[in-house]
Amino acid sequence: RAATIAARRLTADWLERYGTWHPVAWAPAATARRLESWLHWRGLLIGSEAEPLAPTLDRAFARQARHLARIGPADSPWDRGGPERAQVARGLILAGLALGLDERLMERGTALLGTEIAAQILPDGATADRRPESVAELLEALVGLRAALESSGRRPPDTMLSAIDRLAPALRYLRHADGALAVFHGGGEGEPRRIEALLARCGATGALPPSLPHGGYQRLTAGDTVLLVDAAAPPPPGLDRRAHAAPLALEMSAGSERLIVNCGADPEASQAWRAAQRATAAHSTLVLGDTNAVALTGGGGLASRPEVTCRRETGQSGELLLQLSHDGYGGGFGAIHRRRVYLSADGTDLRVEERITGAGTHPAALRLHLDPAVRASLLADGGGALLRLPSGQGWRLRIAGGRPRIESSVYFGAGAPPRKTEQIVVDAEMSQAGPPLRWALQRIDAGGPPPRGGKGRS
Predict the structure, then answer these.
(1) Pairing of the two strands 335-343 and 349-358
(2) pTM for the full model?
(3) How many Å apart are CA 95 and CA 103, to the nearest integer?
(4) How far is CA 129 from the centre of its chain?
(5) What is the pLDDT of residue 85?
(6) Strands 394-400 and 384-388
(7) pLDDT tens digits along 98-107
(8) For the chain, which residues score pLDDT lower than 50?
(9) Residues with Cβ < 8 Å from 45, sequence gap 6 or more?
(10) What are residue 222's DSSP bridge partners?
(11) What angle do CA 270, 273, 278 make, to 5 degrees?
């Protein structure tokens, strides 16, 4: 009862302050989300038609819905792409259903939805902003909209149904074995149970797609090990507001536990923090000269786009191999980063080779960010580290071409608040003529003894 009174009081206060118009409160995506929220909680907010708030709320709903139908991409403020525009289309259609099948709202929302589906959802079901969490957000919006249309006796547009059929397999592809998403390009893990329920509503079963050739991610699965690798150029202009400078970055999980991660992003962080989260050093990849592999703009977006190549092979015994490269360091260093990834058929042996081609010798740092639940200790010989998962399973990291150290890191992938974690850092001087930097992870039986001579955490 107290919560209901508080909700009505807050809604009435909002209507008094911003009910006529406000440049921020009436922004397209915010307005669409508010209309959906009012629809969902209408019964709680007004209780009955005798509630004094009812006529005011209903008038405000209709006024904002028609305002939303009048504005478009040329109006400001308007997000420069991503799921927000699909959110506006969804809000218009739901408002049209709520207002007695207002055909004007329905037609405007359906047209905008078709445009955004074509712009945002790639043929393989990945999204053009290359953010895994966008796949979940768009799929959830479309599945909910499909249900609302069907319950009103209207057939959902074929473009919507086709988009759902493409998004669901892509969402499954971009998950780790814990059921949550890989953390790339400003997205977070999401909620595993919510993702599982969403996939169940789609009837998404069967084998995973072999690849996401348009989305640009490679998934290597062997035994209970999953590797997800960013194997394509960053998203294009207009869809890069949250993009990260992370070509060839990778994440790794073993069973239902994450081992290697990227730092993720907090959209509510300060501008300085957001820049740090988007930096190449916040990802599990190689960094040259403590410099970003992709130039970032101050207000979001990218100022450069490297060319990324990827070739995938499967060996006769089932082992998996990726050969990748990017030229993001071509302008400032005249160098190309080449990453070769091997995963054994049973998933217990990962080997990665980092190589630089091009002129000159360059200071480099390999960074492997660890999930907050992982415990790391350096080996006594200085050539690697022992990584322990909560289950007791261990992985021995061996390094050739540099000496590892353990530094602090921070993980934003699971949402606020950020969690403290650690990273393995390996410094090296790299050149085309010099040896590559190699690292390998071999699984140790769960509960087994650690390698002799471990130093403990540092």
Answers:
(1) antiparallel
(2) 0.89
(3) 10
(4) 9
(5) 79
(6) antiparallel
(7) 988 788 889 9
(8) 74-80, 447-458
(9) 7, 8, 11, 38, 51, 53, 57
(10) 225
(11) 125
